[in-house]
Design a protein that fits this description.
single chain, alpha+beta, two-stranded antiparallel sheet, three-stranded antiparallel sheet
């Protein structure tokens, strides 16, 4: 048996503790990807996970800005922008392959933490689609 370590605690966390840990980790600072961002949603009728990719630039303050206007993008509310591309797939894996492995289109993700985040979110979206539950992007 392996000794206890910070990566492998001696006792399992209950679901509420895992949710609290996840919520706490979601509040950490991350640098925004200059390659753009994704808005993930479900197309329930077609049974698809969809991801709209939008380009952005990062200003000197670290804010994501509209490349056309240079103005910071709002964090809340609706923004009328045209996606650079819309991806869709039946599973998180299918969508990740379309985003990361398409030889015709360069991958729009430039930061590894963004890639990891996207993978986690697509798995959450897939679980929601399978369970017939609503999905809200973190």
């Amino acid at each position: 048996m392996l000794p206890d370590s910070p990566l492998r605690p001696s006792s399992a966390l209950d679901p509420a503790q895992l949710r609290d840990l996840d919520n706490q980790l979601s509040k950490r600072y991350i640098e925004l990807d200059p390659g753009g961002y994704f808005l993930i949603y479900l197309d329930i009728e077609q049974q698809l996970i969809c991801a709209k990719h939008f380009t952005n630039i990062i200003n000197e303050k670290g804010l994501a800005c509209d490349p056309a206007t240079g103005k910071p993008l709002p964090v809340r509310g609706t923004v009328e922008r045209t996606p650079s591309r819309i991806y869709s797939g039946r599973t998180a894996k299918e969508l990740c392959i379309a985003i990361f492995e398409d030889p015709e289109t360069p991958c729009p993700i430039t930061y590894l933490d963004h890639a990891a985040y996207l993978g986690r979110e697509l798995m959450r979206a897939e679980a929601a689609l399978i369970a017939g539950e609503p999905y809200v992007q973190d």
